[in-house]
């Protein structure tokens, strides 16, 4: 015979903190005791507890928990034991590998970009940047297996797709992370690029090109990088482990245009493992609400990287068209890729109606749009923070700390998945534009009324 939860009368699974309850009520009680947040009463104390009412009235639910014999002292003693105990898991090994990789990369980088005695970092132009980027990209590619040995099971072309995407994004986010500034971007060789002197980046004594005009042509890149990455990364103020876990999320990108369907699924699975590790790390550092907020803040940086890459691609249209003919099958169907890149994370999250509306609100209050004014970006940023806080409060009602963090990460992973999908659609539109160059296809389109 199944036992009933003494709080909400749902099916109970065990004795929690001194009373027979379900997991949801146990998680609720633990969180309310652990966070010590004041519970605001909005009722006349006559709420009848059931599976529906337990989410609507926290005050009566907590009162009921105490009435049936749940003890706050048991919660506090377990929290102390958990914080004291050092947990080693298989996933933790992956963070150690990434740390080993990054330490090694920093050492070989110092050797590659050895500075002359008494030389100091200086403002770099595009030639210095290109040379430093190429050297550093080679170093990353040569050593990346140290961090992600799982990639060796993939075919060479699929490995190269991941490597090519990762090196570009990694150089960008590492430069932002190292600078800790919204205005400065540190290059691999130790030099820097300064927003306030961005025109100087395009100056070349050996060229007659107008630096101001070149800057105006590439202004969108500067704004996108500043709004979507430098300011966000500076604001996040990540520690070394958080930065490395972010790079792991960047590496296992499951929405790249040249990716096969099975590799897309594999990358999504690897990202889930990284997110669990990030959640575990944050829950060791913070209380449940702050841990979930921190996970959300870091996962949101992925959306920023997608925006920057999208802007860089759009501003490099000639290279972009060239890459189509070099890497693409002209007639490759893209619907399967959209299905896996977007619907995979969406189906994995399995949102309920309330979570869907929170996701919709996060999409609406996007603070990283290129044409957005600073005032509007600030408003959107504040609104997003409110939405995130409400979503975390909602998830906290029925989940444990770790479950809430993972749930938040899953929902937020849909945002970069949406941008990956838009990138695929955008590329397909460009492909159609190239395809339409041929007259016979124009006539076919006209006959179909397209």
From TrEMBL:
Residues 97-450 form the NR LBD domain. InterPro entries: NHR-like_dom_sf (IPR035500), Nucl_hrmn_rcpt_lig-bd (IPR000536), Znf_hrmn_rcpt (IPR001628), Znf_NHR/GATA (IPR013088). Belongs to the nuclear hormone receptor family. It is found in: Nucleus. GO terms for cellular component: nucleus. One of its GO terms (molecular function) is zinc ion binding. It comes from the Eukaryota. PANTHER family: NR LBD DOMAIN-CONTAINING PROTEIN-RELATED, NUCLEAR HORMONE RECEPTOR FAMILY MEMBER NHR-86-RELATED. Its main location: nucleus. Transmembrane segments: none annotated. GO terms for biological process: regulation of transcription by RNA polymerase II. Keywords: DNA-binding, Metal-binding, Nucleus, Receptor, Transcription, Transcription regulation, Zinc, Zinc-finger. It comes from Caenorhabditis angaria. Gene3D superfamilies: Erythroid Transcription Factor GATA-1, subunit A, Retinoid X Receptor. This is Nuclear receptor domain-containing protein. Residues 2-77 form the Nuclear receptor domain.
């Amino acid at each position: 015979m199944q036992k009933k939860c003494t709080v909400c009368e749902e099916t109970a699974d065990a004795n929690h903190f001194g009373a027979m309850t379900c997991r949801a009520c146990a998680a609720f009680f633990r969180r309310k005791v652990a966070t010590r947040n004041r519970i605001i009463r909005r009722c006349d104390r006559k709420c009848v507890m059931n599976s529906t009412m337990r989410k609507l009235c926290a005050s009566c639910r907590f009162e009921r928990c105490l009435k049936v014999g749940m003890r706050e002292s048991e919660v506090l003693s377990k929290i102390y034991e958990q914080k004291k105990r050092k947990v080693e898991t298989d996933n933790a090994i992956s963070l150690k590998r990434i740390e080993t990789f990054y330490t090694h990369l920093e050492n070989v980088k110092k050797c590659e970009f050895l500075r002359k005695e008494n030389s100091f970092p200086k403002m770099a132009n595009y030639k210095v940047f290109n040379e430093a980027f190429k050297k550093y990209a080679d170093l990353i590619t040569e050593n990346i297996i140290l961090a992600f040995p799982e990639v060796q099971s993939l075919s060479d072309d699929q490995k190269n797709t991941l490597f090519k995407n990762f090196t570009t994004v990694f150089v960008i986010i590492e430069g932002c992370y190292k600078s800790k500034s919204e205005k400065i971007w540190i290059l691999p060789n130790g030099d820097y690029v300064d927003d306030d002197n961005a025109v100087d980046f395009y100056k070349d004594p050996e060229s007659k090109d107008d630096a101001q005009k070149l800057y105006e042509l590439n202004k969108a890149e500067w704004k996108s990088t500043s709004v979507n990455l430098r300011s966000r990364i500076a604001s996040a103020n990540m520690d070394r482990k958080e930065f490395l876990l972010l790079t792991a999320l960047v590496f296992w990108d499951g929405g790249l245009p040249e990716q096969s369907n099975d590799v897309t699924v594999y990358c999504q699975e690897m990202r889930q493992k990284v997110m669990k590790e990030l959640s575990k790390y944050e829950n060791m550092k913070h209380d449940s609400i702050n841990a979930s907020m921190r996970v959300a803040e870091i996962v949101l940086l992925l959306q920023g990287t997608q925006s920057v890459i999208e802007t860089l691609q759009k501003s490099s249209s000639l290279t972009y068209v060239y890459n189509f003919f070099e890497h693409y099958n002209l007639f490759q169907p893209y619907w399967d890729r959209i299905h896996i890149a977007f619907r995979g994370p969406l189906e994995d999250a399995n949102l309920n109606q309330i979570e869907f509306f929170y996701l919709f609100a996060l999409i609406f209050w996007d603070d990283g749009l290129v044409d957005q004014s600073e005032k509007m970006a600030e408003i959107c940023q504040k609104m997003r923070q409110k939405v995130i806080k409400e979503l975390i409060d909602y998830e906290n009602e029925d989940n444990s700390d770790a479950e809430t963090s993972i749930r938040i990460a899953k929902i937020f992973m849909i945002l970069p998945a949406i941008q990956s999908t838009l990138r695929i659609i955008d590329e397909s539109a460009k492909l159609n534009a190239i395809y339409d160059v041929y007259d016979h296809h124009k006539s076919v389109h006209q006959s179909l009324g397209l």
